[in-house]
UniProtKB/TrEMBL annotation, chains A, B:
Upper classification of the organism: Bacteria, Pseudomonadati, Bacteroidota, Sphingobacteriia, Sphingobacteriales
Keyword Endoplasmic reticulum: no
Source organism per UniProt: Pedobacter ginsengisoli
Signal peptide positions (record): 1-22
Protein name: Alpha/beta hydrolase
Keywords: Hydrolase, Signal
Amino acid sequence: MKKLKYLVLTGVIISALASAVAQQTVRQKPLIIAEQGSFLVGGAKTTQPGSFVLTDALKPAGQTFHADHAYAFYQIPVKARKYPLVFLHGAGQSKKTWETTPDGREGFQNIFLRRGYSVYLLDQPRRGEAGKSAVPATITPTADEQFWFTQFRIGNYPEYFEGVQFPKDSASLEQFYRQMTPNTGSFDGNVIADAVSDLFDKIGGGILVTHSQGGGPGWTTAIKNDKVKAIVAYEPYSGFVFPKGELPEPIASAGLFGELKGVEIPLADFNRLAKVPIVVYYGDNIAKEPTKVWNKDHWRSGLEMARIWAATINKHGGDATVVHLPEIGIKGNTHFPFSDLNNMEIANLLSKWLKEKGLDK
Amino acid sequence: MKKLKYLVLTGVIISALASAVAQQTVRQKPLIIAEQGSFLVGGAKTTQPGSFVLTDALKPAGQTFHADHAYAFYQIPVKARKYPLVFLHGAGQSKKTWETTPDGREGFQNIFLRRGYSVYLLDQPRRGEAGKSAVPATITPTADEQFWFTQFRIGNYPEYFEGVQFPKDSASLEQFYRQMTPNTGSFDGNVIADAVSDLFDKIGGGILVTHSQGGGPGWTTAIKNDKVKAIVAYEPYSGFVFPKGELPEPIASAGLFGELKGVEIPLADFNRLAKVPIVVYYGDNIAKEPTKVWNKDHWRSGLEMARIWAATINKHGGDATVVHLPEIGIKGNTHFPFSDLNNMEIANLLSKWLKEKGLDK
């Protein structure tokens, strides 16, 4: 009983501290925004055969449908640095990923605005406010949140990992579950890369920051468009590309998506990835050796593939780095390092890398 | 041929002027934002029977699903006025409605931030970044954009209305078409009102600004929650509520959705609408008398119903005003006055009303 009381009291104190931290965030200096706005970019257009008849306007004849664009919300601070950061979310997420964290602290949107970077936050084609899809979709409410809790390495549900950088109050977890949002058309990495490439054509040179499933379309965008000046990828898993003849063996895994394969592409395309600095970050609680613990093993296969991939890029003259955060002493990160409790430390790491690569001018 | 050349040249000049206007917007004074962020609010949660089994994590047993929340992005300027503006979009739209206009000028988000109002931009439940829906949905690509061009009174496609306050370049029209985004679950006014009411509980008193289909959930929110201190509705069409026994006759219309009916509610609920100032705005090219021109007649029925509705509120001691913009000399507005070419004039009108009602402190 005494122990329970102690635990409850600790909970109250932690909540109060978390609240104080949130309050402190609020009292930061104002953001000075030179310009902000939004637009749709890229995408396809189809026109139905026939002619539009005004008196029969619910018939498709002659009517158009625009789809498969991305949505971008941007903010440009005063005295902005040269290269903006372009943020592409992961599976089941929207640009919300980069905004306020589940426990109400500032995300990378505000953190990097304060550091003088322009930010472009994307909803990829067929997601969020870019919902018009060229292909149909069926959306089914699916009870799967305890799976995601585990897959995203907050813990092995209902247990939190010891020292995990995720807040343990129920309100934060609720925000985290609610920030997921479904596909309004099937995931298509090329459709996404096309739209993101169109964005770079519109805005000029910039740094592409991806999360998870956004990783693959990120590489494809950089291959398509030399206005991508650098790539920062948080926990990519799929879509690792290799030159013809250099595809590694699939990596077996106890993860629920099974073995992990690379994707073969022409050498000329692959070589473009050797032209830009690339950094890839992975968090904690990823197995070092194969294990039956499926979430830890899923990400083990991702991390192993990332290392082979980076080595292949570097063999071709590139500059790719894989950072496994616990190996440099940063512990407890989930699949979302940029919104974890230590996201300021994660941001500092990125700032340091951008400076080292001369991308912070 | 000469005439064609002239037209082309005029087009070029208009484009150049439009571009100059956009550029001018860019060179406005910076926005000074004390705080900005986003969150999910309201919604439901279901839990599947059984217990979650870690080793069988793709089975729904014991898993939860959070849905039917709204998404809110907010910005609070320094020295903010007391009451924020809470913006709720219309059918097929998202919060994008209130952001940059199709031709790249500032929308109500920026305009009212510059005037010292805090702004909350919502994606309603089952739309945009609030996509998790408690009910399933099928999304089908539907060629219907020439219908919407006409329904939203840009013109009778392919003709633009004479003097219409919508830009005539193709890039603007493309942005306009792409900013639509589908439902990820069926439209449910009560689900929306529940989430918006939860937002007001979280943020305290504020002014609710709705567009089109958002009108009905707007009245319901104000009935639920006395933290709604005023309602501003742009072109509401459906969901007009009347006290038991005072329901008007349906209004026949050549509009493609047929006759327009009011909705009966208890008098005690209705009377809450008599407690807050309400203003309703309609644009141009709405018929004065019944006509076979379906778009003009659709909105004629909406405007007529709005007038009966406002008179009923005022009869019960309320303060509701319907402004038909052409009657006060403001011509050419579409269904989207707040993003039309003259949206600064439309904003000025709203500022004046807020001041008159003492809502600008």
